[in-house]
């Protein structure tokens, strides 16, 4: 992770959690990730739930805009590259915007494998998304056979070169996600060091477009990311977040990944001398207020002590007398000290 790029954790729900289930999950994610103000959080429900999820998040967090760190973004999982036409069953970028999506996942390995999407087709979609002001998360990754054949970097280069020129006009608006196909849903995960090698190569390729594009573009890792392996991955200098699959369907598990990103981001911010996060600033402010209250209380106590020292103790009034009948009523000896009499009567 780099302190000058906000980490992004995106949850890809795939063909799961539609209807009411989507609203419940979206609400839980929005609530549980509220404190992560150094992390951009995005969820990608099925098409049919995008509008409902966007509404749920706006009700819970007030915004689906992640730019200020207050909201949770909503992504689609695919789109057609044309705005309209006779393409039965397809959805366009303007339709997604109308439904409430501001992000879109493109070129996922499952789309490439099962629906025969090509590098060229993914590039057309990335261009269309950018033109519609949908933030694309463009996926790249090698199969197990390609990895074992030593072709990983060659495959990644081919896939990235297909679309990277489209990132030139709005540096930082688009995102790249490296998802080794052999790690998706298998429980296997690339080592942080291996993932870093691929991410560094992707950034080198983006630098051919421009240094600004290379420095501003976030590159996510995807493939069996969980709370217990997220920190090791996110501590790599070129890994700017995660595209999470199965773990994103559990709000608690997904939040652990977000919390890991928040912890790494806070550590980097401290090293850079950046202001504390909202949550930490609030805790520190509360501590200062309590300290001030304690100081005021101590000051009042000192003032009271000084007043007693100057004026001396308050003597009991000498004019006070006990009615003659009080002796029989209370059983107090007339010779008893007046203070004892008063104490006895209070009891």
H/E element order: EHEHEHEHHEHHEHHEHEHHHH
**Binned strand content:** 5-15%
- How many strand units? 8
Main pleated sheet: 8 strands, parallel, barrel
What structural category do the secondary elements indicate? alpha/beta
Spatial order of the strands forming the largest sheet? 1-2-3-4-5-6-7-8
In CATH, the architecture of the largest domain is Alpha-Beta Barrel
Estimate nothing, just give the exact number of structural domains: 2
The CATH fourth-level homologous superfamily of the largest domain? Aldolase class I
Number of helices in the DSSP assignment: 14
What CATH calls the topology of the largest domain is: TIM Barrel
| Rg of Cα set | 32 Å
On the 0 to 100 scale, the average pLDDT is 86
Helix percent band = 40-55%
User: What ranges have pLDDT less than 50 throughout 5 or more consecutive residues?
Assistant: 314-347
- From the spread of the alpha carbons, the general shape counts as globular
Distance N terminus to C terminus? 70 Å
